[in-house]
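Hello forum,

I keep getting stuck at the same step: I have a sequence, I want structure tokens, and every attempt I make locally crashes halfway through. Rather than fight my setup again tonight, could one of you with a working pipeline run this one for me? It's a single chain of 369 residues.
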Amino acid sequence: MADITLLTADPKAGFLAHAEEIRAAIERVLASGYYILGPEVEAFEREWAAYLGGGYAVGVANGTEAIELTLRAVGVGRGDAVATVANTVSATAAAIEQIGARLVFVEIDPATMTMSAEALGDVLRKEGGAVKAVVPVHLYGHPADMPRIVKVAERFGTKVVEDCAQAHGAVVGGRKVGTWGEAAAFSFYPTKNLGALGDGGAVFSKQAAVAERVRLLRQYGWRERYRSEVAGRNSRLDEMQAAVLRVKLKYLEEENAKRRELAGRYVAGLKGGAVKLPAVAAGVEHVWHQFVVRTEQREELRAFLAERGVGCAVLYPVPLHRQAAYAQAVSLPETERACAEVLCLPVHPGLGAADVDRVCGEILRWTDA
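Reply #2:
Ran it on my machine without issues. Output:
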């Protein structure tokens, strides 16, 4: 196999693009004497909330715990049912089960591969009011159908908690993702559109009470030090990561625009070829966390590209309901089809037009082989 020279994601390139500012931010933290829940975290929380249009942001340790703490903050507890999709990373399910809630899987829309609002309605009706919350996942940078999902959830009195780990800055219906439900969870894992240099996450809500509940839960339930009002945990965003995120947030819109430019070049270069191109729903601003094509010959194409130095990823090869930890006897044919066909091509701000053209050329050669 050839050395992989084109990566699907490149956190190092993201660092190097802003290295001088990031190093200065790190030095500022080192000199400050504040390393946990200090002024950098507070400033990032304000800036992230402002970016999302106003509300309350709470920095936490990672995206998984952001989902868990958000669900707890909106009232989900042990034995409650939580509905989500199965074509997502295990973290979504792990967060739900961490609080003792019961996973209920919802089928996806075959075009966008995000939660189907119609299928959600069927699930909520079947569960007869047992589903306390729904967690739509904004996948690959494409928002779930939040206008319809929120309407369906409201009919059944179900809380909405958005999983925004792959969609920083994405817009649906004129509003950024994360602003539709009671609250939202974000991951700042290094490969995300807004990535830290380690783990990090945040919860966002327009409801002050929800945000305050998360603040309690993220640090042992303390409002006053060493006095726990509720049974919380340790899930704190550290000062170093907050400082890095403050630098990178300034460039998020610019870098999302670069991702859109690269995605447009992929679409032009692969149109009419053997792979199925990603769909973008009306009223959506995609942020292209991944550029995902579909083909029944995924593994053949993946191997072909790897031999030519092009790295690809599969997000995600096995749906959650088919994994041993979360296995359920539920019929999700569109989910299973998507998981069997998706292939993520390189797309990140460190790439150029020539890189995309190279990938397109190799795929077209594979098509003709």
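The CA atoms of residues 259 and 288 lie 6 Å apart. If your local run keeps crashing, start a new thread with the error log.
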